[in-house]
C-alpha cells in the first residue's frame, strides 16, 4: 500500500499526542489535496478527470476524488502523457 502524505491544506488543532502513529486515509480529497497526494499539479488532475482516467464525486459544487480512486490510479500501468492535446484529440 502506498504511504499517505499528510494533507497540508487542512489545519488541525489536535496535539501531537492525540494523533495516532498510523493515520487513517480520508475518504474523499479535493482536487488540490489529490494533486498533492499524487505529487502532480492540479492542472494534471483536471486532465486526468477530463480523460476519464480518474473518477470523481461531485458533492454540492465541490469535485472530490475518492481515496480508492487515487490508489487505483497509482497502481495502473499506463504511462500516458497528460497534455491538453491528449484531451482534445483522444486516440481510439
Write the layout of secondary structure elements.
Layout: E1 28-30, H1 31-38, H2 42-51, E2 57-59, E3 62-66, H3 67-75, H4 84-88
Antiparallel strand pairs: 1-3, 2-3
Helix pairs in contact: 1-2
**Name of the top-level CATH class of the domain at 28-76:** Mainly Alpha
- The pLDDT mean sits at 79
Helix-and-strand structural type: alpha+beta
The whole-angstrom Rg is 15 Å
| Helical segment count | 4
CATH topology of the domain at 28-76: Arc Repressor Mutant, subunit A
CATH architectural group of the domain at 28-76: Orthogonal Bundle
How far from one another are the termini? 32 Å
Protein architecture, described:
The chain has 4 helices and 3 strands. The chain has helices spanning 31-38, 42-51, 67-75, 84-88, and strands at residues 28-30, 57-59, 62-66. The chain is globular and about 45 Å long. It has a 3-stranded antiparallel sheet. Helices cover 35% and strands 12% of the residues. The relative contact order is 0.17. A hairpin with a 2-residue loop joins β2 and β3 (62-66). The model has no long low-confidence stretch (mean pLDDT 79). It is of the alpha+beta class. The termini are far apart. It has a domain at 28-76: Arc Repressor Mutant, subunit A, CATH 1.10.10.
